[in-house]
Amino acid sequence: MDIIEKRLKEELKNSYSPYSHYPVSALVICSDGSEYAGVNIENASYGATVCAERVAIFKAVSDGKRKGDLKELHVMVGSGRVGTPCFLCRQTIGEFFDEDADVVCYSTEGDKKEFKVRDLCPFPFGSEDLMQPV
Predict the structure, then answer these.
(1) Selection from 66, 79, 73, 132 nearest residue 105 by Cα
(2) Do 28 and 35 touch, CB atoms closer than 8 A?
(3) What percent of the chain has pLDDT over 70?
(4) What is the mean pLDDT of the chain?
(5) Domain boundaries, the chain
(6) pLDDT of residue 133
(7) Which of 73, 68, 6, 91 is nearest to 36 (CA)?
(8) b vs e for 79-101, b when ≥16 Cβ sit within 10 Å of the residue's Cβ?
(9) Could you say which of 53, 95, 109, 114 is catalytic?
(10) Model-level pTM greater than 0.85?
(11) Is 134's pLDDT higher than 80?
């Protein structure tokens, strides 16, 4: 188990997932070497739940990082299988990561799958899709 997997597994303990019992941890690695960890945080009002990937990305953004600064995203689910980001997270990933950035998804059992952002988000919705003022 490499250092990233160990850190993700340790971070799973911070997940607040009393409703789904589906803990998730994430780690954003930036081009300057800085790292931002996140876990899923559930709420009895399910719509108020926030995914681990978005927590980690939002921490980086709130620290001043922008697209081009975020280099890799690592995600682990505590279910024993490899899971991939949900579509809300994929939209956020597409906003803040370059299309050739790495997304690595791990299981707690040592399995992993590697993707490029363009593979997870093949048809991104971006600023160019917004209506322009007339």
Answers:
(1) 73
(2) yes
(3) 99
(4) 95
(5) 3-123
(6) 72
(7) 73
(8) eeebbbbeeebbebbbbbbeeeb
(9) 53
(10) yes
(11) no
DSSP 71-106: EEEEEEETTSS-----HHHHHHHHHHEEEEEEEEEE
pLDDT at residue 124 in the model: 84
Residue 24: closest CA among 35, 8, 3, 36: 8
Q: Tell me how long the chain is.
A: 134
- Percent of residues, the chain, with pLDDT higher than 90: 89
Domain 3-123 has CATH 1.20.1250.20: no
- 53 has catalytic annotation: yes
Least Cα distance to 104 among 37, 35, 26, 50 occurs for: 26
Secondary structure class of 54 (helix, strand, coil) = helix
Residue 120 neighbours by CB under 8 Å, 6+ apart: 84, 85, 90, 93, 103
Look up tokens 């505590």; give the residue: 78
Q: Do 93 and 26 touch, CB atoms closer than 8 A?
A: no
The candidate with the shortest Cα–Cα distance to 79, out of 46, 98, 106, is 106
pLDDT over 80 (residue 132): no
Distance separating alpha carbons of residues 121 and 104, to the nearest angstrom: 14
